[in-house]
């Protein structure tokens, strides 16, 4: 050291022991094959805690829901069947998940974001008009046909619209076991935020805001 003092041997040994413990901990983490989510406890930003390996079964790694059509008899004429960690505990900690998207004729998945992950959409039936808006407000949209794939970067506003006359179906994958979802229209008009505030932040008039609140179930 600059003042001529040396590090005491006990301090050096303590630091070395700490380093070894950290290396062993990291090695054990890398050697862990999986971390099936223990859904009986609350989720955390880091995911669910791991289920005891002795309690893990093959069913934890299998999800069958994507083979069945979703119910599109709703306001947007679309349905999303998620295979996120809450439905599919085997994806916990793996940085992946999936979903099925069904959009009936004239159906739409309105502008929305997934704050927790990027999305990859693969069309397996029908025709879908899809696109996203970047943070620079640049617009990227196109018409996707059977076999086409499009990616939507994490956090970007994006949409899907049925562009044909038959139900469109797509399989979607995400770069997160829990990508999250916020639909812009519902965030603005399906809550109790007072109408004058909504009008102020959207530049819409009172009649338009109250009509949208009524349609989407908001109040205030």
Brief account:
It is built from four helices and ten strands. The chain is α+β, with helices and mostly antiparallel strands.
Structural write-up:
Mean pLDDT is 89; it is low at 25-29. A five-stranded antiparallel beta sheet has the order 1-2-9-4-7, with no helix packed on it. The protein has a five-stranded antiparallel beta sheet with strand order 6-5-8-3-10. The chain has helices at 9-31, 184-189, 195-202, 206-216; strands spanning 78-83, 97-103, 108-113, 119-125, 128-133, 139-144, 149-152, 157-162, 168-174, 182-183. The protein is of the alpha+beta class and 220 residues long. It is globular. The longest helix is centred in the first third of the chain and has 23 residues, at 9-31. The termini are far apart. 22% of the residues lie in helices and 26% in strands. The chain has two domains: 1-179, Jelly Rolls (Sandwich), CATH 2.60.120; 187-216, no CATH class. Strand 5 and strand 6 form a beta hairpin. It has four helices and ten strands; from the N terminus they run H-E-E-E-E-E-E-E-E-E-E-H-H-H.
DSSP E strands, number: 10
Distance between the termini: 68 Å
Alpha-beta classification: alpha+beta
CATH superfamily of the largest domain: Jelly Rolls
Instruction: Give unreliable regions as ranges.
Output: 25-29
Number of domains as seen in the coordinates: 2
Element order, helices and strands? HEEEEEEEEEEHHH
Q: Which CATH-level-2 architecture of the largest domain?
A: Sandwich
Number of contiguous helices? 4
Q: Any idea of the CATH topology of the largest domain?
A: Jelly Rolls
- CATH hierarchy, class of the largest domain: Mainly Beta
Spatial order of the strands in the main sheet?
1-2-9-4-7
């Amino acid at each position: 050291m600059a003042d001529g003092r040396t590090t005491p041997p006990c301090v050096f040994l303590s630091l070395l022991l700490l380093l070894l413990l950290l290396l062993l901990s990291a090695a054990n983490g890398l050697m862990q094959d999986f971390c099936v989510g223990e859904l009986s406890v609350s989720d955390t930003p880091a995911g669910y805690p791991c289920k005891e390996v002795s309690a893990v079964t093959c069913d934890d790694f299998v999800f069958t829901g994507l083979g069945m059509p979703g119910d599109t008899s709703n306001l947007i004429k679309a349905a999303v069947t998620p295979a996120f960690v809450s439905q599919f505990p085997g994806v916990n900690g793996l940085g992946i998940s999936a979903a099925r998207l069904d959009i009936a004729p004239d159906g739409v998945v309105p502008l929305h974001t997934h704050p927790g992950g990027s999305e990859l959409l693969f069309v397996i039936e029908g025709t879908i008009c899809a696109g996203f808006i970047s943070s620079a407000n640049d617009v990227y949209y196109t018409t996707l046909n059977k076999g086409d794939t499009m990616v939507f970067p994490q956090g970007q506003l994006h949409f899907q619209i049925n562009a044909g006359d038959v139900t469109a179906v797509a399989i979607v994958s995400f770069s997160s076991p829990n990508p999250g979802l916020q639909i812009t229209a519902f965030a603005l008009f399906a809550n109790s935020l007072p109408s004058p505030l909504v009008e102020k932040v959207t530049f819409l008039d009172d009649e338009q805001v109250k009509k949208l609140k009524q349609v989407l179930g908001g109040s205030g």
